[in-house]
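wait is this the right file?? whatever heres the structure
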């Protein structure tokens, strides 16, 4: 066995389903340890009327990372080119646009208050999205969520949110969404 192979075998045991870097292993172990702590449920953390919002700059890099992750290689989303970096791009709407459901992905980063512990046992069970206008790559959007209802259905507790994604500068509304979170 070579010296390099010996060194590799002394690292923490991992397989193709487990984190492979020391940082990922530590983060996973810290997360598992946090599961033993007492934490509120999402139902307990949210009150009807709670509003949370965040602004997000839609950079070409953010768009391409999302598009690559969901394997959506439409050239309409390309606001960059190798060795030229940021460009206007082209779509039937003019410049490069954001994949239509990308903003829906970022709603969870707003819906869950990052100043509080993450509520274990929450499941996103429903959403209805209304796309009103394309978002151009380079825009800065405001994602706002409002808790509008708490209800019990088949002995399970749900929190319903209304979501609005708008342009920070003009106030133009790009997207509306209603989504439910089931809470243990």
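ok assuming it is, sequence goes like this
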């Amino acid at each position: 066995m070579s010296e390099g192979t010996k060194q590799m075998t002394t690292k923490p045991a991992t397989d193709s389903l487990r984190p492979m870097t020391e940082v990922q292993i530590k983060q996973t172990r810290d997360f598992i340890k946090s599961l033993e702590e007492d934490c509120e449920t999402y139902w307990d953390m949210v009150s009807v009327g709670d509003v949370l919002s965040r602004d997000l700059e839609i950079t070409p890099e953010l768009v391409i990372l999302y598009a690559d992750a969901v394997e959506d290689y439409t050239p309409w989303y390309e606001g960059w080119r190798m060795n030229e970096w940021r460009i206007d791009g082209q779509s039937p709407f003019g410049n490069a646009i954001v994949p239509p459901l990308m903003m829906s992905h970022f709603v969870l980063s707003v819906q869950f208050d990052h100043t509080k512990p993450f509520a274990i046992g929450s499941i996103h069970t429903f959403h209805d999205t209304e796309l009103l206008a394309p978002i151009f790559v380079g825009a800065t959007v405001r994602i706002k969520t409002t808790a509008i209802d708490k209800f019990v259905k088949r002995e399970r507790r749900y929190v319903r949110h209304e979501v609005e994604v708008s342009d920070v500068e003009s106030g133009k509304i790009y997207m509306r969404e209603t989504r439910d979170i089931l809470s243990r």
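Helices lie at 3-9, 22-34, 42-45, 60-69, 102-111. so i think its the right one actually
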